[in-house]
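REQUEST ID: PR-0412
SUBMITTED BY: lab tech R.K.
PRIORITY: routine
TASK: structure prediction, single protein chain
INPUT:
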Amino acid sequence: MSLPDGRKVIAFDFDGVLHEYHGWNGGVLGKPMPGMQDLVARVVAAGAHVVVHTTRKAEDIGLWLAEHYGISREYVYNEKWSRIDVFVDDRAVYYAPYLTRDGEATDRLARYLLAYEPHWKGAQP
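STATUS: complete
OUTPUT:
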C-alpha cells in the first residue's frame, strides 16, 4: 500500500533476518545477519521506508536496532500494518494463486509447507 508520499514500506523480521538467531536463548542479542546491514542501507538509499516486524518488544531491541541498522524503535511493530508492501521473513513462504490452481499443485505446496524449516534450523536453499 506504500506511504502517502509513495515510498515502498519494507518490513524485516528481527530474529533470523536482521539478527542472528539459532533458537531462543533468553533474549540475548548477538550479531547482525551477514549482508543485511548492506541490504537495509541499499533499500533505504533507494527511497524505501523500513520497519521491523517482530514478536519481540521494541524496548528489548530498540538500542540494538539503532546501533546496527539506524532504525528507531518507533518503527518496530508487533501487529500487521496495512501499509506494508513486502515482508522479509525467515519463516515466510511465497504464495500466488497458481500454487493452488489444481490438486497436484496444492499437494506439492502442502508437502513443501509440512517439510519447511527456517535456515537457522539447518535448512539449506
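NOTES: Helices lie at 36-45, 58-69, 103-115.
REVIEWED BY: pending
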